[in-house]
Amino acid sequence: MPNSTASHTAVELVVMDMAGTTVTDDGLVIAAFDTAATTVGLAETGTERDEARRYVLDTMGQSKIEVFRALFDSEDRAQQANRAFEAAYDALIDGGVAPVPGAVDTVTRLRDAGIKVVLTTGFSAATQQRVIEALGWQDLADAWLAPGAAGRGRPHPDLVLTAALRAEVSDVAAVAVVGDTASDMLSGLRAGASLRAGVLTGAHRAPALREAGATHVIDSVADLPALLLP
User: Fold this and answer.
1) 229 DSSP assignment
2) Which of 31, 92, 211, 216 is the most core-located residue (most Cβ within 10 A)?
3) What SS3 class is residue 11?
4) Can you tell me the distance from the alpha carbon of 18 to that of 193, in angstroms, rounded to the nearest whole number?
């Protein structure tokens, strides 16, 4: 349910997260992380592994290379972990990812109403493209953005601001950000998006989403049209 009233600014663009928001991957992130952690020599059991897993869960939505830089003690080790993570995740994508129920209909309804939709991720652009191809989503959204060429990953505002520039919105207040993590909400807040909707289909629960700046918390992206459309 919303925890504030909807913005009076007409929404022109929705910047929408993928994994956990529009895409379900059934634990593939942690499975791929465990492969990456083992690759760089982190003990397979024990406190260090448990704490690393918890950090990965707490930072869901952030750029994966930045997560590995925070976890490991050198750039070379972080890059090695990131490469191993992407290879492991990519190998699990086929048959391991699916649309969140109602996600395709939501994006279609928003675009039919004249609202642009950009899908974003904390994965690399190459992994994002693999997910898009596995789902057959090449024509679903107006654009797709990933950390790198589109700027820094979440919780920085870069992906939201890049989407706003490409969509040529009249005002950043006309942007809505939708995601399942605190990082999604914080990136929207920092970018100046007036509507920030947290969804409960992914990593973080309502209190964490609200604390990070969510203006609304909804059960699923399927509930977004009721929030944005007449």
Assistant:
1) -
2) 216
3) coil
4) 18
